[in-house]
């Protein structure tokens, strides 16, 4: 097929470009700017081919037209090879579930470009033997002068071919950590948590050591983190380990893996303190600092509600004249806060002021971090919690089926009053929906009051009966008949008898 003013190769190149563009346009939408640029380059070569075919006068004009045509045909071939490479490496191979690294594909396309250049030079009458000898010398000179560049190129090729590093991986290089966003010929780009783009030469990654965090090829990608804290030597290590390890394992903390389970170990001793480390597995490296903070909050809350202080360097200055007055003021404010918490509970409404004062002195601070389990369904615990700040949720797990949200409670609510008064197992699992500030009242704190006033058992039984009936309604729903609820809920007399037996009043 001969078209006026065009070289014999041009019609075939045009046909090939159109067919290849149809094949790659939709699958490679993300590369549309590159496709447009290649198409514009090809169109420019066609225009050059047409101009070279126009009549030219004189020897010089014909020689210039000949060189223009050679360059145009060479450019047309480059464009076709570019589209052919995209169709093969980016469309055909992925459909066959075969993938090669982008850098290797680029190298193969460049080799095809070089081969096409030698082919066109040979057709133009250039002696290739001299060219090969000259190119060998030039290659040696370039290899010596571009060692770092070649090292980066080969490093990028090796990284992509052995899959030791992939886009999306989180890595740490020395004191730098970030997510891999691109692997180019010369460098690997990282995006840090501060939003900084860091360019790391590929040769540095190949020569040095880097760490892949939460390797996606593991059965469960996770990164072990260590949280250190110190506790006074007077506290039993077994107690500290059991409390902290149990709390973190039970709590619902975002990005903390359930398995492997968190573990607490005694690492070292210092002047007056024991050094502990809580080890947990992080699921998302991007949230390392926020998750570490959440875990520290849970550790602190666990230690505080069990009366354990962190061992820190304290510098206290006592002002003798004002110290006593300030201390009394702080204690007075705390007592008022505790009395306010006691007065908010219906269970203690019939107590005298002196009895409420006694209970207020027995309260123990019990903070909980968001996600902590305050009480667990079926557990035996002879105390109650009074919520001062925060919100908690009560969940009930039926014998069969998914657990059910019974209710949410905020400041002024109480959990565990039935367990405190009768010793009965917990009816629901209560989880802190936010950070919760609470007070705990143990059985021993109420023992002396009810021993002095046994008649309180009958008064409290009516309140507990209503509370149990409310639980039954939440568990079963209001569709159930009241007779069935009455059969499930103990009467006041039965509850009063259980209170007397639990406190040994009979």
Mind explaining what this structure looks like?
With 506 residues, the chain is of the alpha+beta class. It has a 5-stranded antiparallel β-sheet. Strands 9-16-11-14 form a 4-stranded antiparallel β-sheet. A hairpin with a 2-residue loop joins strand 1 and strand 2. The longest helix is centred in the N-terminal third of the chain and has 38 residues. About 2% of the residues have low confidence. It comes from Dechloromonas hankyongensis. It is found in: Cell membrane. This is Mechanosensitive ion channel family protein. InterPro entries: cNMP-bd_dom (IPR000595), cNMP-bd_dom_sf (IPR018490), LSM_dom_sf (IPR010920), MscS_beta-dom_sf (IPR023408), MscS_channel_2nd (IPR006685), MscS_channel_C_sf (IPR011066), RmlC-like_jellyroll (IPR014710).
Descriptive keywords:
RmlC-like_jellyroll; Alpha-Beta Plaits; alpha+beta; 51% helix; MscS_channel_2nd; 506 residues; 5-stranded antiparallel sheet; transmembrane helix
Quick structural gist:
This protein is of the alpha+beta class and 506 residues long. It starts with 9 loop residues before the first helix and ends with a helix.
CATH class label of the largest domain:
Mainly Beta
Number of domains: 4
What are the low-pLDDT stretches, counting only 5+ consecutive residues below 50? 478-487
Query: Mean of the pLDDT scores?
Result: 81
First CA to last CA: what distance? 115 Å
Which percent bin holds the helix content?
A: 40-55%
Strand content: 15-25%
Instruction: Assign the CATH superfamily of the largest domain.
Output: Jelly Rolls
Q: Got a strand count?
A: 16
Specify the CATH architecture of the largest domain: Sandwich
Structural class: alpha+beta
For the largest beta sheet, what order do the strands appear in spatially?
A: 4-3-2-1-5
What is the 3D shape? elongated
Question: What is the third-level CATH name, the topology of the largest domain?
Answer: Jelly Rolls
Provide a count of the helices.
16
Q: Report the radius of gyration as a whole number of Å.
A: 39 Å
For the sheet with most strands, the description reads: 5 strands, antiparallel
